Amino acid sequence: MSSAKLKRSEALDEGRARLKVVPLKRSTADKEKGQALSAKRRAERRAVVGPPPPATVASEAELLVSEGLATVAEACGFLGLAQSSVYELMGAGELKYVTIGRSRRIPWRALRELAVRGLVGG
Predict the structure, then answer these.
(1) Which of 79, 90, 86 is nearest to 112 (CA)?
(2) Whose CA is closest to 95, among 54, 41, 74?
(3) Rounded distance, CA 7 to CA 3, Å?
(4) Nearest CA to 110 among 61, 57, 38, 44?
(5) For site-directed labelling of 62, which of 1, 38, 51, 55 has its Cα 20 to 30 A away?
(6) Is the pLDDT of residue 77 over 60?
(7) Cα separation of 67 and 112, whole Å?
C-alpha cells in the first residue's frame, strides 16, 4: 500500500476514534406520545387491511405433492418394478408425476395410492 493511502486511512481511523456516540434522550411524555401514535397507526392499518383472509382449502394437486416427491429410481424401489414399467405407468396415466426441467418426480402419495389400488384380496 502506498504511503499516501496509508496516511489517509490512518487519518480516517483517528477521526472515527474521536467521534462519540451519544444516546438520544427522550422524556417520558415523548415516549408516551410515540407509543400512542404507534398504537393509533397499528389500528389504522388493521382497519384498512381488515381481518386476515380465511384459510384456503388446498387443492388436490397441492395435497398430492405435499408429502414430497420421489425420483423414478426411488419409485422403482418402492413398487418393486423395473424403470420401464414405471415409465409405462406414467405414460398410461395410471401414475401421476411432475416434470421439473427434464426430470420426472413422482409424489409419494401417488405411489401409495397406486399400490392400494392394486391390492388384491384385502
Answers:
(1) 79
(2) 74
(3) 6
(4) 61
(5) 51
(6) yes
(7) 11
Matching residue, cell 481511523: 13
Cell numbers found for residue 20? 462519540
**Per-residue cell: 81:** 418394478
**Per residue in 24-66, pLDDT tens?**
666 666 666 666 667 777 676 666 555 666 666 678 888 888 8
Give the pLDDT mean for 62-72: 90
Tell me the pTM: 0.52
Query: 62: left (phi > 0), else alpha (psi -120 to 50), else beta?
Result: alpha
**What is the DSSP annotation of 70-105?**
E-HHHHHHHHT--HHHHHHHHHHTSS--EEETTEEE
Q: Which residue has the higher pLDDT, 15 or 108?
A: 108
Per the listing, cell 417520558 goes with: 28
